[in-house]
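Quick one from the shared queue. A colleague (R.T.) flagged Pyrophosphate--fructose 6-phosphate 1-phosphotransferase as missing a structural entry in our internal table.

Convert sequence to structure tokens.
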Amino acid sequence: MAARNAFYAQSGGVTAVINASACGVLETARQYPDRIGTVYAGRNGIVGALTEDLIDTGLESAEAIAALRHTPSGAFGSCRYKLKGLEENRAQYERLIEVFRAHDIGYFFYNGGGDSADTCLKVSQLSEKLGYPLQAVHIPKTVDNDLPITDCCPGFGSVAKYIAVSVREASFDVRSMAATSTCIFVLEVMGRHAGWIAAAGGLASDERHDLALVILFPEQVFDPERFLRAVDEKVRTHGYCSVVVSEGIRGADGRFVAESGSRDVFGHARLGGVAPVIADLIKDRLGYKYHWAVADYLQRAARHVASRTDAEQAYAVGKAGVEMALKGLSAVMPAIVRTSDSPYRWEITAASLAEVANVEKKMPLEFISADGFGITEACRRYLRPLIEGEDYPPYAGGLPDYVTLCNVAVPKKLAASFSV
């Protein structure tokens, strides 16, 4: 069997370790030159495939590819671009197959979250209908940790570590100033429907670090009166309070507390910033002086404080994705299976994309404390291993030394262009 080329693309919000998955894909593919020819990367994700803007990763040195393992963000560019359903816009999917056929691409590796899993499944289904042989594998990634089946999502462990560290350090800061200055600190974290990242803030307080924390989860209806009582009690007891709030909290009317009214390309409501809303509520009702911050891109770009567990898992799913494709599997996702909590052990299995696509995993209610403002011991047992270990990047001149690839374009073979 002659070697066929592969296509790899990054999708959605990038993470501190998505390039580690890219490294796993590329290094593993290079070990099978008799099966996989050139791995092309889509410039700016799936848009690169639609516009035939492909990058020849074969022109990158082994050293540059290896350096991806400790470099944050998306080395080839990502995108927020959701393909519609097959019946709504079949032309998009047919265009993908047309590009794949022109460049003899027999392997499709799509590195992203839930929307990417759906796209990967649909591409696999259409390739079968059109009689075009293609092994389509979804490589999991999302800081939201909301993909089903897999124990955790690569990208989440590092965000969780960053948030836990930040909340602990900021709490030490506000505690030291509370007597005569600020006594409230509010940190807004990502998480539209699932409170996994907010929950990670709860790790900041433990048996050795008794910190005054209040966490607001999207799984819990936001009740201003209950929240204010909880904050007031923390300040009266400890002198200060740190609040970790998920961007996706909703009121009793079902609306996002921070909803701005507009929507993004996926149809999701744009969230306008919940931290100042919560901080102003505290100031107006309780009179406490505050500071607030939005972790935003910092939480997902912080490779300098990445979790070693997360980095290892990100590489492993990239590697496993290639191996699954070479075994003839398609429409699957490498899923992480936890086999032990302590010591933490895990393995990888193939999950069907039919069971992954369009399914969102929220936090179990047993992970949220009875008062609704903290995490339980069960949640700690789940989270702790995911932030374990340090995996520092190399430093030069006092700063992380990250790689920037050449990203040389492949000559186009199709005469027709395609608008996105």
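Confidence is low (pLDDT under 50) at residues 260-266.
The domain at 156-302 is CATH 3.40.50.460 (Rossmann fold).
Added to the table.
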